[in-house]
Amino acid sequence: MAEVSEVLMSVLSTIRVPRPGDRVHKDECALSFSSPESEGGLYVCMNSFLGFGSQYVDRHHTRSGQRAYLHISRTRKKEDDENSGSGDPPKKKPTRLAIGIEGGFNVEQEQYEEEVKVVLFPDRQEVTSDDLATMPDVVRERVSLAMAGLMSADSVSHALQVQQWDGEVRAVSRHAVELKQLNNGTKIPPSGWRCEVCDLQENLWMNLSDGRVFCGRRYFDGSGGNNHALLHFQQTGHPLAVKLGTITPDGADVYSYDEDDMVLDPKLPEHLSHFGIDMMTMEKVLLPKSIKIQGLYGDKMVFKAALAPFSTAHISKLGYGLLSGEYSKPAPDPGEGSEPSSEPRGDQVGIAARMFKALVGRGHPEFSTNRQQDAQEFLLHFINMVERNCRSGVNPSEAFRFLVEERIVCQQSQKAKYTQRVDYILQLPVPMDQATNTEELQEAERRREEADSSGAPPPAPVRACIPFTACMAALSEPETLTDFWSSAAQAKTTATKTTRFASFPDHMVIQVKKFTFGQDWVPKKLDVSIDVPDTLDLTALRGTGQQPGEELLPEVAPPPLMTPDVEVKAPVLDDSTVSQLCEMGFPLEACRKAVYYTGNTGIDAAMNWVMGHMDDPDFSAPLVLPGTSSAPGTTPTESISEEHLATIVSMGFSRDQATRALRATSNVLERAVDWIFSHLDDLESMEVSEGGRSAAESEGSREPPPGPKVRDGPGKYELFAFISHMGTSTMCGHYVCHIKKDQQWVIFNDQKVCASEKPPKDLGYLYFYRRVTE
C-alpha cells in the first residue's frame, strides 16, 4: 500500500476536484458507447473528466500520460434485492415526466448497485475508500474530495436531459400584453392554409395583429419559406406571429420579428380566439401498447439513432457502435451467479445516442427539447446541418439530393417557364376521396354519430384504404395557379404548374402526408392504409425540359434597343414611386426594378410588379441599368465571404460559379443559393479571362457542367426501410423503424430489436428506397 501511496503522491497534481461548470463525462465513453453498466465499467480521467471504456482507457493513458482514473461500475440488482427492505422509507412519487432528473424517475439508482474506486495506470492498481484511510492526509484529502466531487457532479448527459425535458426558456415578448389586434373579420380555418403571396402550404406563420398568413424564412439551401412573413412585418410593423401547426393547449411557437427571437405570449389563447382559433380544444391521446415478438441480436442489429456529422471522433464512435455488434447483445441477467432466465429478456443494452441528439438539436427550438417531434422535419434539419458542415469532397447528403423540375404554362399566352429546385424528400399527397372502401367508411361514420348522440361507447374506427397509384396520380397531376403574374401578359392570370423529376437520387425518401387538422382545430393523423409497393418505377415522371416549338416566358421586360453607334444612357427612374415602395418596407433594389420594368408608369403598376416577383431569387439583387457597368455601390472586386464560397462549392458548384452568385446577391448566402439554382443556363457561359480562356481552362482543366451536384440514374427503386408513427397526431406518439436485412424485415423499437413476420408497410410515414442497378 505504501507503493500505491507514493504513486498517488507523485500524480497528485493531475487529480482535480470538479468545480461548478466543469463538464463531467461519467455516463458514457468519449470514443464508444460503453457505460458504467458495460463489461469492464467506465474509467473517468481525474484531470480532464473524460470517460473511457475498458478498451480505450489504455490508449488515453498512453497518449496523455494520465495515470489516475475513477473507475465506476454498475451491476443490475437481483429481483429479490429490488423488492427487499420493507423498512426502507417509501420512494418519492415522480412529479415530472422525465428520467434521471430531480422530480423524475430515478431508474438507475433503483436498479443498479454501484462500485467506485481509483485505478492507477499502467499497472491498474486499485485504490478503494478504505485504502485511502491509511494514506497521508494530503493524499487522502485530495483524492477523497476528487472522488466525492466526481460522483456528486451532474454528468454531461444528465445536464442535457434536464435541458431537453425543461426545454428552451423563452422570454415574454414586450409586445404581447398590449398587442393591438385588427377587427377585420378574419377567421382562420383549421386547414387549407396557404401563404397569401406565393401559395406555399408549409412553414406558415399567422400574424397575431391582422390574422394574415405568410410563409417563414428561407433556409440557406433554398428550403423553408420565401421570407414573406418577415416582409409583412417590415411593411406593417406587426411584430408577433404564431406558427400554424404548433398550437396545442400548452402553447405554440410564437416569434417576435421586432425582438428577433422565439418568445412567450401569455395572452396567446385570447389572441388566437380573436381569429377563431380555440387552442384549448386539444386533447392528449394515450399511446398504443407494443407487441412482444422474438428478439434479434448480433452484428449490426442495433437501434439507429440520430447522427452527428460535425466531428470525426463522433462519426467514428457512432459507426463503430452501429456496425461492431458490441452493443447488440441481450441485456444481462441481474446479479452475479443468478440462474439464467428460461426466456430471453427481449431487450438489449443498445445505444442511447444522447450526445448526438444534443449536438444535432443544439439551438433548435424543437429538436433541442424532448417534446414530440416530426421525423421528416428532423431528417431535413439533419441534412441541412450536414450540408453546412461538409467541407470534404464527399458529401453524404448527395445520396438523397435530387432536382425537381417545375413547368409553369401561362394560359393566356401559352408560354412556359421552367425552374429547378433541390429537394431531398418526395412528399406524397393522400387523396382521401380516392378510398376504395367508401361505403364501409360512411357506415362507420354513421355509427359514430349515433354513438355520440346516444352516449354509447364509440365503435371501432375503420381505416381508409387508399391505392398507392392514386397518391402518385395526385402527385403528378397539374396544379392550377389562379394569381400567376405573367411576364408575357404583364398581368395576373391563370397558369398550370406541373412538377417532375430532373434527376433521380441514389436513395429516394418518400413522406406520406398524413398529418392535418380537423374542423375543431385538433391536430390529427389520417388513419389510412396505402399499398406501398416493394419496387418503384418513377421513370415516367422524369422531366423533359423545353419542348420543340415551345416559347418561354420572358424573364424580364426587354431593354431598349441599342446600336453600336449610339451611346446608351441610363434611364431616369421616378424617385417618388421608388420612395413610396420603400416606405412600404420593400428592399430598395426591388423597388428600383419595379419602377424600371414597368416603364415609370406609376405606383399601381410598380406595386403589381413587386407582388408578382417577391418570390424571385434575385428579387433584392442590385439592378444594373443600361449604360452603367454595375449597380450603385458595387464593384467587380467586391469582397466575397470565403465561408459562403466554401458552402456553395460543397454543394457541387465551381468557385467561379459561387463567386458570381454571391456578387449578384450582395454576398448574402441564402439569396446566392437561390440565384444559382435559378440561373443554371446562365452559368454555362463563365467569365472569360483576358487571354480568352476561362480560369479553369487556363489551368488545363475543363469546367464541370453547371448545376448542383446530384447522382442521377435510373428511376427504379426497391424498398429497404420505413418509419412508422404510432399515435393519432403530431402532439403525441412514438416512432418505430423497420429495416430489411438479409431478406428479413426487422423492427427497431427503442431497445427492442425483433424479427417482423408481417411488417405493416401500409401504415408507414417515411419510406426509404434504394436504386435498383441492372
Automatic annotation (TrEMBL):
Residues 67-96, 328-347, 435-461, 688-713 are annotated as: Disordered. It catalyses: Thiol-dependent hydrolysis of ester, thioester, amide, peptide and isopeptide bonds formed by the C-terminal Gly of ubiquitin (a 76-residue protein attached to proteins as an intracellular targeting signal). Residues 689-698 have a biased composition (Low complexity). Residues 291-772 form the USP domain. Residues 572-613, 639-679 form the UBA domain. It comes from Oncorhynchus mykiss (Rainbow trout). Belongs to the peptidase C19 family. CDD domains: Peptidase_C19B, UBA1_UBP5_like, UBA2_UBP5. Residues 171-279 form the UBP-type domain. GO terms for molecular function: cysteine-type deubiquitinase activity; zinc ion binding. The keyword Zinc-finger applies. Zn(2+) binds at residues 195, 198, 215, 228. It comes from the Eukaryota. Keywords: Hydrolase, Metal-binding, Protease, Repeat, Thiol protease, Ubl conjugation pathway, Zinc, Zinc-finger. The keyword Repeat applies. Substrate binds at residues 205, 217-220, 255, 257, 260. PROSITE patterns: UBA (PS50030), USP_2 (PS00973), USP_3 (PS50235), ZF_UBP (PS50271). Its EC number is 3.4.19.12. One of its GO terms (biological process) is protein deubiquitination. Pfam families: UBA, UCH, zf-UBP, zf-UBP_var. This is ubiquitinyl hydrolase 1.
